[in-house]
Specification:
The complex is a heterodimer. Chain A is mainly α. Chain A has 9 helices and 4 strands. The termini of chain A are far apart. In chain B, helix 6 packs antiparallel against helix 15.
Chain lengths: ~250, ~400
């Protein structure tokens, strides 16, 4: 790429990048489900086994990238000019920040509509509530689960592009902490609750930012986890509550 | 999904004649029944195939376990004694030549192998016996380590006084951390325990009285016992520390075994299998889960004391999240809930990467792939507990019907 683009070209470049990232992540997610989850689901329903398999797969994928691209922080090309649009107080609103916020909102709305209204979405919700019953109702849960993985991969691909555009660095294990943060946000909002996840992510970000400015940046993760514990003490199934029929494990 | 759509799309019963409506309804009912039947059949066939697939795998550990349980008690004790003797003889040079030609075997025996075994036995109480998923077990390891460091350096206390103090402190920490956490379940519990591990580590990095990111140096060694080389705790020879951790492991295994077969252990098993059912049968589940958390935590604290007494200096980097994950995978890999399995798992997770130092860069890659492959082919672990194996393989009892297998598989 020759350098930051503008106007229509920029939108085209961004869309192309998003498509490529979504494709790569979705393919990885698809393979992950086939290799590390599906064979396991056939043989056991132990959640612990699935967790260990997931951890193993995550080590494996991270190491593949570490061996291919090294363990150092890698630069990420500047895709767009980061011009300051206006100020709110002392905070500057830049084009890339606007892009991240807008894209996140659009993706969340799309995902919420999709899971809420489409056939696959109904299948996903049915499978989450009660896999056995879903099968008896004619849901092909194998297909639903693999498509859910692909859906997750698509979302992660967009998130990665936005992350890269904003921070302009990447590393082989950069997803590890983000994955834990994402899990924390989902738990904060209530597992299985899409809008809860949105609010949870939003709340987690705000807590970390305000916590960092009040207590110092080095305490932000501690503050986030302490708030998580406090919230779960009052609401054991997250802010918006769990939308599943039964608590799992 | 097809059925869902069809039934939703079918028009409501119109004002048709009663006969017609009746036959129509019966016909539809019949079709629905056959469809549900075929789905059920497919499910059952698939499960039966899975069970058959499982049975085809050679079950090498089963006969050994059965033979072991047929042995009279005195010979069981002889075998145990033999294993301890082997462990005592392990730091020999020729063993090191075979086991770890590329690194210092005696050092490895203490850390990671000995410490990992101790941690895995402790975590097994929490995960394997009580069924609490703890992703932040390293928190207790860190609390133990820092207790030893702070009391040893600042107060000048003796190792033998600090060890019980740290164990007690970790039990209390288990109660304090467990009280809010253990009211949660599943994903919520997992993320909160993970959070505890991170809170402890980051707090140790940021606080000034824990030495910040540079940690604490000058931690005293345990005092010598007599004049024997094996009990002289210096800087160079790791063997005395290995014997110390071995002694601690033996004590902890003894305690864990007694606990497992006590009223407490049975309560844990009930909670692990079905918490709601246990609560309904009158088991005070919260209190027993708290016990498991505190006991497991105190074992982790003991390991932490040992670790920092040997290492002279500790930093927060000694207690990463990765350590929790490694110990958890050791427990699951070995056979969650079964002490010999857990010890084997911890030994392998600690030893194999060191043994294959020659593969350098590919170690973690292979480890990751091995975890996935192990979980696919043997999700119950290398040496599963008898209860777990029987529920996975043949149903609850010898004469259990294949459907019982299905039910059991669902629950585990």
């Amino acid at each position: 790429m020759k350098g930051p683009q503008t106007g229509i070209v920029l939108i085209g470049v961004l869309l192309l990048c998003a498509l490529a990232a979504m494709g790569a992540s979705a393919t990885t997610a698809f393979l992950l489900e086939r290799v590390a989850y599906r064979p396991l689901r056939r043989r056991t329903t132990s959640r612990l086994a699935a967790l260990i398999s997931a951890i193993g797969a995550s080590f494996f994928i991270q190491e593949v990238f570490a061996l291919r691209y090294g363990r150092d922080i890698l630069p990420f090309p500047r895709i767009m000019n980061k011009t300051v649009l206006f100020h709110i107080g002392s905070g500057e609103v830049r084009t890339d920040k606007v892009l991240v916020v807008l894209a996140a909102i659009v993706m969340m709305i799309l995902l919420d509509r999709f899971v809420g209204t489409s056939r696959l979405g109904r299948g996903i919700r049915a499978t989450a509530q009660d896999p056995e019953m879903a099968v008896l109702m004619g849901v092909n849960i194998d297909r639903v689960i693999v498509l859910t993985f692909i859906l997750g991969g698509l979302m992660a691909g967009v998130a990665a592009l936005l992350f890269g555009t904003f921070f302009e660095v990447t590393q082989y294990n950069i997803g590890f902490l983000l994955g834990i943060k994402a899990f924390t946000a989902a738990v904060l909002g209530g597992i299985g609750n899409l809008r809860g996840a949105l609010i949870g992510g939003f709340a987690l970000g705000l807590i970390e930012s305000y916590g960092a400015s009040i207590f110092g940046a080095q305490w932000k993760d501690v503050i986030a986890f302490v708030v998580l514990v406090l919230v779960l003490l009052v609401r054991p199934t997250g802010l918006l509550g769990e939308q599943l029929a039964r608590s799992r494990i | 999904m097809r059925v869902l759509k069809r039934s939703a799309a079918s028009p409501p019963e119109g004002p048709a004649g009663p006969d017609q409506a009746g036959t129509d309804r019966e016909g539809r009912l019949e079709r629905a029944r056959s469809r549900v039947g075929s789905v059920k059949g497919r499910l059952a066939r698939r499960r039966a195939a899975a069970v058959a697939w499982r049975a085809r795998l050679p079950d090498l550990t089963g006969p050994v376990a059965r033979a072991w349980h047929r042995l009279p008690r005195w010979s069981q004790w002889l075998v145990r004694l033999g294993i301890i003797v082997l462990a005592v003889l392990a730091p020999a040079d020729w063993v090191g030549q075979i086991m770890a030609p590329a690194s210092d075997w005696k050092t490895l025996l203490f850390y990671p192998i000995g410490i990992f075994v101790l941690l895995a036995v402790g975590l097994n109480v929490v995960v394997g016996q009580a069924g609490i998923l703890d992703l932040g077990y390293v928190a207790f390891f860190a609390i133990g380590g820092y207790t030893m460091a702070l009391l040893g350096v600042n107060v000048g206390l003796d190792f033998w006084i600090i060890l019980p103090t740290a164990v007690a402190l970790c039990a209390v920490s288990g109660l304090v951390l467990g009280t809010p956490a253990l009211r949660l379940r599943g994903d919520y519990l997992a993320i909160v325990t993970l959070g505890f591990g991170e809170i402890i580590r980051i707090s140790a990095t940021n606080a000034s009285w824990t030495g910040g990111p540079r940690g604490i140096a000058g931690i005293p060694h345990p005092p010598d016992i007599g004049n024997l080389n094996a009990f002289t705790y210096g800087v160079l020879d790791p063997t005395p520390y290995y014997y110390l951790v071995l002694a601690l492991i033996v004590v902890v295994i003894f305690v864990a075994r007694r606990l497992e077969r006590s009223r407490v252990g049975r309560a844990w098993a009930a909670i692990r299998e079905d918490e709601d059912a246990a609560a309904l049968m009158g088991v005070p589940t919260f209190r027993f889960k708290l016990w498991a958390f505190a006991i497991g935590g105190s074992i982790g604290g003991g390991a932490g004391v040992m670790f920092s007494a040997k290492n002279i200096a500790i930093t927060p980097d000694n207690f990463p999240l990765l350590l929790s994950i490694l110990v958890l995978s050791a427990v699951v890999l070995g056979g969650s809930g079964n002490l010999p399995g857990v010890i084997l798992g911890a030994f392998l997770v600690a030893w194999l990467p060191e043994r294959f130092r020659g593969l350098a860069d590919y170690r973690v890659l292979i480890f990751g792939a091995a975890l996935v492959i192990m979980m696919i082919f043997r999700p119950e672990g290398l040496l599963p507990s008898r209860r777990r194996r029987s529920s996975l393989r043949t149903g609850t009892g010898a004469g259990a019907a294949p459907t019982a297998v299905v039910e059991q598989e669902e629950k585990t």
